[in-house]
Write a structure and sequence with these properties.
It is a single chain. The protein contains 11 helices and 25 strands. With 494 residues, it is an alpha+beta fold. The chain folds into 2 domains: 262 residues, 3-Layer(aba) Sandwich (Aminopeptidase); 214 residues, Alpha-Beta Plaits, CATH 3.30.70.360. A hairpin with a 2-residue loop joins strand 19 and strand 20. It is elongated and about 85 Å long.
């Protein structure tokens, strides 16, 4: 069964721990795209009232639910439990689904829960559900709790950025947004959104002797533009641009439209380019496209086994890009870096700085290109962003920076980290991986207004986040849940 998760007999609702999975199913029945969290915020307030718990809301829309400590835990430090309520909305091209009005269609697949052709929302719905399960529990020992549910984490972290000092009073913050159950996160990258815009000269298409093709790059694996950036996954926008440039080595063609990618924090899986060429050039063009397609399949066969390059005739557009502007734009896209810029020299295996060429829109004389630049070193993030701006400036585009947020600097003397590390070793008989991650956790932002709050992040195994392949491991959720409860039970004395 892959839909109707609100039905009490849905397989997801039969999983252990029951309270956690049922709250996850409740959550996934509510549409909650980033910047459209109104319905889930309203539901949280209603849920809290039904449970006899106090709920508050700040001016940007974050929700805070408080619960007193259980008996015998009154002397422990107050703990802030934090997760974000929004989700990345990505679907397969063939999937008919409306994220604004429909609940996620879930299914149990062996040891995994996944969705039917869409993102699952386990990022960060499992964290939210875990917190709700603790809040409604009658038998889980815990200190005084402040449950912070932030909005709009995925498209700008505006919830965390807008949270003011004084809204929270806790001593320790547990962020439940890490996606490997053997990992304790103690730091993360900051990021900045880059939007490059400009115009180009259009030329009228001559009908006689010309035809149009839509060149499609699709089937790339996609994934999280931070956590998956080290995997060398194909970026459909870069590949689509490469296909056109290599075709231009053989025939003359003109670009009429480019549309590729989607959200900034998702590695683009698909790109479409409409080109115009002479009918007499169709055979050499098709031959060139076939050669490039074969090269791309060979280069990306391991990371992106379903990658496809295809081309089909379409109606002749009325206008194409002027030749000079086309040349400048294609070269700028070629110059735009994607993937890893630099690995950390201090933390083994950590990506320090990267860029995702997330979205390309070219149509009707206008260009808009969106990137997400990440780094755990703010000065290097700024310099890398400057290089991207320079590439597009050479093509006449103006770049705006927005949504900048700081990284989370590891605190080697953290009491919470030491406790979580020791407890993991004690609980599982092996040491956890204690490291920083190349994703945008909210801890760094929250720390700007709460500099004395001790922070740590952990969570269950989630794979394919920010893509329709997203899934969460059932056995890992059980492992995480037991560990989470023990962390609460072992909260240090105030």
């Amino acid at each position: 069964m892959k839909d109707h998760a609100d039905h009490p007999t849905h397989p997801v609702r039969q999983l252990e721990p029951l309270d956690l999975w049922n709250r996850f199913a409740d959550l996934n029945a509510i549409p909650r795209p980033s910047k459209h969290e109104g319905k889930v915020v309203e539901w949280l307030h209603t849920w809290a009232k039904q449970k006899g718990l106090q709920s508050l809301q700040d001016e940007v829309g974050n929700v805070l639910i408080k619960k007193d400590s259980t008996q015998g835990m009154e002397s422990r430090k107050t703990v802030v439990l934090q997760s974000h309520v929004d989700m990345v909305c990505q679907k397969n091209a063939a999937t008919d689904f409306d994220f604004m009005s429909e609940g996620i269609r879930m299914m149990v697949d062996g040891d995994w829960v996944r969705a039917d052709g869409t993102t699952l929302g386990a990022d960060n719905g499992i964290g939210v559900a875990s917190i709700l399960a603790v809040l409604e529990s009658q038998d889980v020992p815990h200190p005084a709790l402040e449950a912070l549910f932030t909005i709009d984490e995925e498209t700008g972290m505006t919830g965390a950025l807008g949270l003011k000092g004084g809204f929270l009073s806790g001593d320790i913050l547990l962020n439940l947004d890490t996606e490997d159950d053997d990992e304790i996160s103690i730091g993360c990258a900051g990021g900045v959104d880059l939007t490059s815009r400009g115009t180009y000269t259009e030329e009228t298409t001559v009908d006689e002797g010309n035809m149009a093709l839509e060149i499609v790059v699709r089937g790339a694996s996609g994934g999280h533009s931070g956590m998956d950036i080290h995997k060398g996954l194909a970026n459909a926008n870069k590949l689509g641009n490469r296909v056109v440039l290599e075709a231009l080595d053989h025939v003359d063609l003109r670009v009429a439209q480019i549309k590729g990618g989607g959200l900034r924090n998702a590695i683009p899986r698909e790109s479409r380019t409409v080109v115009v060429c002479a009918k007499s050039d169709l055979d050499p063009l098709a031959q060139a496209l076939a050669q490039t397609a074969e090269r791309l399949r060979s280069e990306h066969g391991t990371t992106d086994p379903d990658l496809v390059v295809e081309w089909n005739p379409v109606d002749l557009p009325s206008h194409v890009m002027g030749e000079e502007d086309q040349y400048a734009l294609l070269l700028a896209l070629q110059a735009c870096p994607v993937g890893i810029h630099r690995m950390s020299p201090d933390i083994e295996g950590l990506v320090q700085t990267s860029n995702n060429l997330a979205r390309v829109d070219v149509k009707g004389g206008k260009v808009e290109i969106q990137c997400l630049n990440r780094s755990s070193v703010d000065s290097e993030k700024d310099d890398h962003a400057r290089g991207i701006e320079a590439a597009f400036a050479l093509a006449g585009l103006q770049t705006e920076r927005s949504g900048s947020y700081p990284g989370w600097t590891p605190n080697p003397s953290s009491e919470a980290v030491a406790m979580c590390r020791a407890l993991y070793t004690e609980h599982f008989g092996e040491d956890p991986r204690v490291l920083a991650c190349h994703a945008g956790l909210e801890c760094g932002i929250l720390g700007t207004n709460y500099p004395n709050m001790d922070m740590v992040s952990f969570g269950p195994n989630i794979r394919g986040a920010h893509s329709p392949d997203e899934c969460v491991q059932i056995s890992s959720v059980q492992k995480f849940w037991g560990y989470f409860l023990e962390v609460l039970h072992r909260t240090p004395q105030a």
